[in-house]
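Appendix C: a fully annotated inverse folding record. The material below is reproduced so that readers can follow the format used throughout the book. The structure is listed first as tokens, followed by the designed sequence.
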């Protein structure tokens, strides 16, 4: 197994083990750090939606009624919780085990790709963004809510100090810049804003026609 494959298996193992406690942990983090962010993303989707690293499906109740959502995640235990969350919702939901870096989807097959707190743990995020480009139809939209490298000196220093712990415990990179990956892939950035001392980024971008 190559290094990338080994890292993906490590991510899978971490999230398989975390599945039972993930929602309780994220309820606190969402409230403190990302308040309103998931709603910001889900209110901007159009057409058929692909959510990468869908996890336990915390976004699912927030999508507009009738939305078609394909959710992909490495972890079957996480998806099992997402399926229970999806069952009563007025959505058309298809949840699949898969790798965001190598999607089993045709070119130009969805209208919106969603990342929420996903690019921080994908081993090679540029591949996931490139896959988002591939599966989006022309004019399609990429929407992201991510924690990123802060431009505020003391905050950046704290992130750098904490990163080894976060990587060991949750395969979580604190110093990434998703905007760089998105622009490098060819997307046109429609909206980018930073919050919480520059730690939180809300991002909307489009694949040109």
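Designed amino acids, in order:
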């Amino acid at each position: 197994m190559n290094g990338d494959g080994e890292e993906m298996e490590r991510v899978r193992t971490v999230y398989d083990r975390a599945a039972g406690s993930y929602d309780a942990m994220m309820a606190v983090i969402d409230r403190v750090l990302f308040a309103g962010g998931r709603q910001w993303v889900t209110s901007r989707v159009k057409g058929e939606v692909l959510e990468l690293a869908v996890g336990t499906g915390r976004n699912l109740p927030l999508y507009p009624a009738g939305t078609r959502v394909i959710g992909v995640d490495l972890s079957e235990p996480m998806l099992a919780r997402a399926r229970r969350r999806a069952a009563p919702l007025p959505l058309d939901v298809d949840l699949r085990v898969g790798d965001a870096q190598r999607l089993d989807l045709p070119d130009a097959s969805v209208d919106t790709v969603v990342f929420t707190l996903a690019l921080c743990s994908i081993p090679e995020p540029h591949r996931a963004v490139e896959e988002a480009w591939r599966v989006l139809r022309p004019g399609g939209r990429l929407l992201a809510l991510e924690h990123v490298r802060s431009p505020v000196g003391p905050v950046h220093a704290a992130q750098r100090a904490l990163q080894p712990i976060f990587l060991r415990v949750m395969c979580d990179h604190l110093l990434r810049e998703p905007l760089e990956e998105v622009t490098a892939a060819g997307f046109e950035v429609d909206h980018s804003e930073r919050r919480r001392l520059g730690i939180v980024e809300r991002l909307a971008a489009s694949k040109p026609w």
